[in-house]
Amino acid sequence: MIDLHIHSVFSDGELIPAEIIRRAEAIGYKALAITDHADHSNIDLIIPRIVKVMERIQPFTNMVLLPGIEITHVPPDTIPDLAKESRRLGAKIVIVHGETLVEPVKEGTNIKALQSDIDILAHPGLITEEEAIEASARNIYLEITSRRGHSLSNGHVAHAALKYGAKLVINTDCHSPGDFISKEFAIKILKGAGLIEKEIYKVFQNMEEIIRRKIK
């Protein structure tokens, strides 16, 4: 299993990074990214610390560890600069918290995120045709999620991505030990989103593709 959307105590997760890494390793994960929620107040606090702990632990695990960030609930026009700041601070995976059905994310977040230097648009809710086309054109991955609430629009996201050629990933948006999932369960979630076998296989290929690109 590869999981590129996990939260630690540096935002609203329950575990310190070292415990996240050990728990994921123990259940056979191949790679992960820790992507805590950030805005202008904490981005320079979180990323250097995630970079530091991953650099220290990486020699002791076969998993690929990627420092990341999830830009969350900020005014859409500020997303491009925050994405640049994330890269400068060392984030390998930059996620934007999309317009989920279950939180009051400001309208315009999806499209502004897709016009920025990010890797994944998380749980983008009722993503529009324009947004799905933009994701495809800019090679930004759209997220299918196991997270309760955010997963309500998985089927819509999958349909839009397949229709307009955008790439999909599956993540947990993990906040606590019980949020980790197996690959077998991830497959069930993707089937539930309406994907057929060859499309599910492609999702896991997409995840491998991200890892290969980030560790060059």
TrEMBL record:
Residues 2-75 form the Polymerase/histidinol phosphatase N-terminal domain. It comes from the Bacteria. InterPro entries: PHP_dom, PHP_phosphatase, Pol/His_phosphatase_N, Pol/histidinol_Pase-like. One of its GO terms (molecular function) is zinc ion binding. GO terms for cellular component: cytosol. Coiled coil: none annotated. It holds the Pfam family PHP. PANTHER family: PHOSPHATASE YCDX-RELATED. This is PHP domain protein. It comes from Thermodesulfovibrio yellowstonii (strain ATCC 51303 / DSM 11347 / YP87). The lineage of its organism: Bacteria, Pseudomonadati, Nitrospirota, Thermodesulfovibrionia, Thermodesulfovibrionales.
